[in-house]
């Protein structure tokens, strides 16, 4: 996952994008399968305003699969997004996955979309997007002619109602990183139940898990690095990105408590422990892919070390794709 995080360093966008490209290049060399991009607006904390544009660049720059996690659906017209996804599916030889989600209730939703109303109810936009990608048509308008198959589409979910919405449309889900494995199991069950009610069947292997990720020589050191990185990330917040709903003040104590809570739901440890946790996730959730998020460790150097060590020391032991 490329958050294009500046880590509170004050680095320019050019520097941060350079770091991100180095992560992707190292991932390809180290045997990772995919790279996923994000979308954030009006903040110096992270620097990618278009997950789709960054994905297009990486499809041309690497031989990796590329996904968006996520393109913020309330910020985009669903048919325009379907056009772009179909194009990337075509020029990327089927390597592109469009992941969408509702984002966060911040000011970009007012600038680009329908504000809180669009954030709270994405069902109409999601149905339009899914139908346009499934059929290649919208109101008799052909989106992109001669595109083989359809672009894979998945909905980011951090709750049972969102998982049910995906199931109603027959869509896979991207399981959010802040949710424990038991809650993820509940979301997968709700998705499958809703899919069956609406005449769909979703292969669990089409779902995508996600987790913050750290490797160190000892499991305690890996967890400590994530606690430190996540605590700093939470305390920094997203300067410039105004919330549309009131949020409690983020204090040092609150950020520490949240970071320690989040670390209970991540993949972190020495190489053997990371491989064990990956195998366990695959067995418990059945998801065919997992998005690993090394930027939580808090520095560009830590990300590169994690990316390199994962290929050499973890993935072969996990016996699963990453």
From TrEMBL:
Query: For the Luciferase-like domain, which residue ranges apply?
Result: 10-285
Q: Name one Pfam family in it.
A: Bac_luciferase
Q: Does the keyword Oxidoreductase apply?
A: yes
Q: Which UniProt keywords apply?
A: Monooxygenase, Oxidoreductase
Which GO CC terms are listed, alphabetically?
A: cytosol
Domain of life, per UniProt, equals: Bacteria
Q: Which GO terms describe its molecular function?
A: monooxygenase activity; oxidoreductase activity, acting on paired donors, with incorporation or reduction of molecular oxygen
Against InterPro entries, the record matches this protein to: Bact_Lucif_Oxidored (IPR050766), Luciferase-like_dom (IPR011251), Luciferase-like_sf (IPR036661)
Q: What is this protein called?
A: Alkanesulfonate monooxygenase SsuD/methylene tetrahydromethanopterin reductase-like flavin-dependent oxidoreductase (Luciferase family)
**Protein source organism:** Amycolatopsis thermoflava
């Amino acid at each position: 996952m490329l958050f294009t995080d500046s880590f509170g360093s004050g680095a320019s966008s050019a520097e941060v994008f350079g770091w991100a490209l180095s992560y992707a290049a190292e991932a390809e060399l180290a045997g990772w399968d995919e790279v996923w991009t994000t979308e954030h607006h009006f903040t110096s904390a992270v620097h990618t305003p278009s997950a789709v544009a960054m994905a297009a660049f990486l499809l041309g720059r690497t031989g990796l699969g590329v996904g968006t996690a996520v393109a913020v659906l309330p910020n985009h017209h669903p048919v325009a997004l379907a056009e772009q996804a179909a194009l990337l599916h075509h020029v990327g030889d089927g390597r592109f996955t469009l992941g969408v989600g509702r984002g966060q209730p911040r000011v970009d939703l007012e600038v680009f979309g329908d504000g809180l109303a669009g954030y709270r109810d994405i069902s109409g936009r999601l149905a339009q997007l899914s139908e346009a990608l499934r059929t290649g048509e919208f109101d008799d308008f052909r989106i992109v002619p001669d595109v083989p198959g359809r672009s894979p589409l998945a909905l980011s979910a951090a709750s049972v109602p969102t998982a049910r919405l995906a199931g109603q449309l027959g869509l896979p889900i991207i399981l959010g990183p802040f949710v424990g494995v038991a809650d993820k199991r509940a979301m997968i069950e709700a998705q499958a139940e809703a899919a069956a009610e609406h005449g769909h069947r979703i292969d669990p292997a089409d779902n995508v898990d996600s987790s913050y990720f750290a490797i160190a020589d000892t499991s305690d050191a890996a967890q400590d690095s994530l606690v430190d990185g996540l605590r700093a990330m939470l305390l920094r917040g997203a300067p410039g990105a105004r919330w549309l709903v009131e949020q409690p003040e983020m204090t040092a104590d609150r950020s520490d408590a949240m970071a320690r809570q989040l670390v209970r739901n991540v993949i972190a440890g020495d190489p053997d422990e990371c491989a064990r946790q990956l195998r366990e996730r695959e067995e418990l959730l059945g998801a065919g892919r997992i998005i690993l998020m090394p930027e939580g460790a808090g520095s560009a150097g830590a990300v590169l070390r994690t990316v390199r060590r994962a290929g050499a020391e973890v993935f072969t032991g996990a016996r699963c794709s990453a």
